[in-house]
Specification:
The protein is of the alpha/beta class. The protein is built from 8 helices and 10 strands. It binds flavin mononucleotide.
Amino acid sequence: MTIYNIFFSPTGGTKKVADILVKEFGQNIEEIDLSNINLSQRTLQEDDSLAIISMPSFAGRPPQIAIERLKQIKGNGIKTIIVTVYGNRDYEDSLIEMYDEAINNGFNVIGAISAIAEHSIIRKYAKNRPDSNDEIQLKSFANEINKKLNTPEATKLNIPGNHPYKEIKGIGLIPKTTSKCNKCGVCAKNCPVGAISFDDESNIDAEKCISCMRCVSICPKSAKKISKLITFIAGLMIRKQCKLRKENELFL
Ligand SMILES: Cc1cc2nc3c(=O)[nH]c(=O)nc-3n(C[C@H](O)[C@H](O)[C@H](O)COP(=O)(O)O)c2cc1C
């Protein structure tokens, strides 16, 4: 049995959640990274395989580039779990949109999870999550899913979210490059939307940038920064919503 770990995870929080889950289903894991700009088209093998599709929630929607890249992968009826990962504010229509897209691409979605990971912009929210409690909870979800995998009857999933989806709001937080930059090119190579020039890493295409924070988190010299003031204000704006610890949820 192959477990397809299909993920989009600019700063690694989504991948942490995905990794906790996939290991509970088997050892034969194949990773498909949706941040890969050169992702080629493919059709998955059905057999008794399982796909786990994980994406972060950006302003209550999945990143549209991840949704576009998912269209390259044909599900071919494979049993699938969809996972939205968010920074303890809310995930609004992320899961329902992932569900719709997965179904459109031939994935047989049998379960859904919302999970929490450290907020990739305002890092004080959901700090160090997923933590050990999350891990226990996510493993118990995998256990529940395993039981469902072994029962033949299909149940109707109740995925939270609305149609039409909430409007897409760009964050517009374009990282700045400081003098610490030694032009190693790691940021340009790893930008999931190809927004950073290979010739001049300080040149970021604001039209392409999705403010995913990968360059900020990946730079070995910590040379990419976002405005402290804007981050502080954004933190204040969502403070109320982020105040209480949210728990992971399972929809079966
Ligand atoms: C552009 C952007 C928008 C975000 N919007 C939300 C949001 O609406 N709600 C929330 O709880 N977290 C939000 N977050 C936090 C991420 O969903 C969360 O940190 C997630 O774990 C990031 O995934 P990654 O670590 O795989 O990149 C946002 C992060 C970014 C970069």
